[in-house]
Design goal:
This protein is α/β, with parallel strands linked by helices. Helix content is about 35%, strand content about 20%. Helix 5 links the parallel strand 5 and strand 6. The longest helix has 12 residues. The chain is elongated, with a radius of gyration of 20 Å.
């Protein structure tokens, strides 16, 4: 879907991009094809697209698989997709409130994620869709510092830990603002994740645990965990894992959070 096609749809359908949803529609055909290729989709794969917008990725994705589901918060855009893409299931819903259908296995996740809600969406995906073998995202380039970072850094937190535990991370390529309508003020980037065995440990409960661990970054970890377990149990858990009793959350490696969670929360 190129720039002229996007403009025609916006005009004919009377659709105005909404800043509150961070709507910037991808219109560069090479970028679109590169993202679809990165997904490595087979015909039988179950694919989830979060925030399909006008369908720049949706249509080529629908040509690759018979099992494409899309969650779109904007009713006008959802209705447009239902009328134009017949071989995909379109859900008009806020993805953060979306309940995954029972017994549906997801193989691939793809999303052009607005920066303002990136963290919440990725946390949900990394904890509730851990069966997916691959995830491909387009995000604001500057936001990657919150995803690809190490313990002890200022940006290190729950999102970086979840991303690390889900699997292998790769920075694929930059996407200039000229690839969108309307043009955002920042440069975007496409990143991918390939599932590893450590993704088995990711659950919504583990996300809540991480959020608690980092609730007050300047405080010692044992202080943040006070509402989860008794002080003596926290002390024993830290010592048994070879951790300093006065450590802060930002000092722990991703795997150490898994082990601490299993000791304290079973």
């Amino acid at each position: 879907m190129n720039r002229d096609a996007i403009k025609d749809i916006l005009q004919s359908e009377g659709i105005l991009p909404l800043s509150k949803y961070g709507q910037n529609f991808l219109c560069d055909e090479k970028t679109i094809q590169d993202i679809v290729d990165l997904c490595e989709i087979s015909r039988a794969d179950m694919v989830l697209e979060v925030g399909p917008g006008l369908g720049s990725l949706t249509f080529p994705l629908s040509l690759k698989t018979d099992n494409l589901g899309c969650v779109e918060i904007d009713k006008g855009l959802a209705d447009h997709l239902k009328e134009t893409i017949t071989n995909a299931t379109i859900f008009h819903q806020d993805f953060l409130k979306f309940e995954r259908p029972e017994n549906v296995k997801i193989d691939v996740v793809v999303s052009n994620i607005p920066y303002y809600i990136m963290t919440d969406i990725m946390k949900k995906l990394f904890s509730e869709y851990t069966d997916a073998r691959k995830m491909v995202f387009m995000v604001e380039d500057e936001a990657i510092a919150r995803i690809d970072c190490k313990p002890g850094s200022k940006q290190y937190g729950p999102l970086a830990i979840l991303a690390s535990l889900y699997g292998g991370y790769k920075y694929e390529f930059k996407v200039p603002s000229t690839a969108f309508i309307p043009q955002p003020r920042t440069t975007s980037a496409v990143i991918s994740f390939t599932r590893s065995m450590s993704a088995d440990y990711l659950t919504p409960e583990f996300v809540k645990f991480l959020n608690t661990c980092f609730s007050m970054r300047r405080k010692m970890l044992k202080k943040n965990l006070a509402g989860i377990a008794e002080p003596d149990n926290i002390h024993s858990a830290l010592i048994s894992l070879g951790l300093n009793d006065n450590c802060r959350a930002e000092e722990l490696e991703p795997g150490e959070f898994v082990r601490l969670f299993r000791v304290l929360c079973g």
